[in-house]
UniProtKB/TrEMBL annotation:
<feature type="domain" description="ABC transporter">
    <location>
        <begin position="9"/>
        <end position="61"/>
    </location>
</feature>
<dbReference type="GO" id="GO:0016887">
    <property type="term" value="F:ATP hydrolysis activity"/>
</dbReference>
<dbReference type="InterPro" id="IPR027417">
    <property type="entry name" value="P-loop_NTPase"/>
</dbReference>
<dbReference type="Pfam" id="PF00005">
    <property type="entry name" value="ABC_tran"/>
</dbReference>
<protein>
    <submittedName>
        <fullName>ATP-binding cassette domain-containing protein</fullName>
    </submittedName>
</protein>
<comment type="similarity">
    <text>Belongs to the ABC transporter superfamily.</text>
</comment>
<keyword id="KW-0547">Nucleotide-binding</keyword>
<dbReference type="InterPro" id="IPR003439">
    <property type="entry name" value="ABC_transporter-like_ATP-bd"/>
</dbReference>
<dbReference type="InterPro" id="IPR050763">
    <property type="entry name" value="ABC_transporter_ATP-binding"/>
</dbReference>
<keyword id="KW-0067">ATP-binding</keyword>
<dbReference type="GO" id="GO:0005524">
    <property type="term" value="F:ATP binding"/>
</dbReference>
<keyword id="KW-0813">Transport</keyword>
Amino acid sequence: KLNGMSDLEADQAVNKITSELEMSDYIDRPVGKYSRGMKQKVSLARSIIHQPDVMLFDEPSTGLDVLSSKLIHDFILKCKKDNKAIVFSSHNMYETEKLCDRIIIIHKGKIVASGTIEQLKKDYQKDSLEDLFIECIGGMQDE
């Protein structure tokens, strides 16, 4: 049983999420034989199978191939369109700019900037999120 779901609800939820994440062909295979990308999809599926109102994505496309990354991005955009609250953590500025409306830049445990990407770019007079990030953390650093 899945967290209070009936067998029918659980089957429907598994079928829906495995279809959305293009995992249906792998459903009966041992997880230990999955590729890194497929294991990442399994982890994602496990965390969202119950359709929570708030979703946390921590570096969801790290280590994935281009097609798997696009699939994950499209899924996140669908969640966003469905008005799910999404907390997204990434070091990938392109991905962040594509998927996020508002950002918080954290450096050494402190919030150094917060707001919409467009407003922060305007405030810091930067054309790219990467340049904005570098400005907010005090420039290029050897860390």
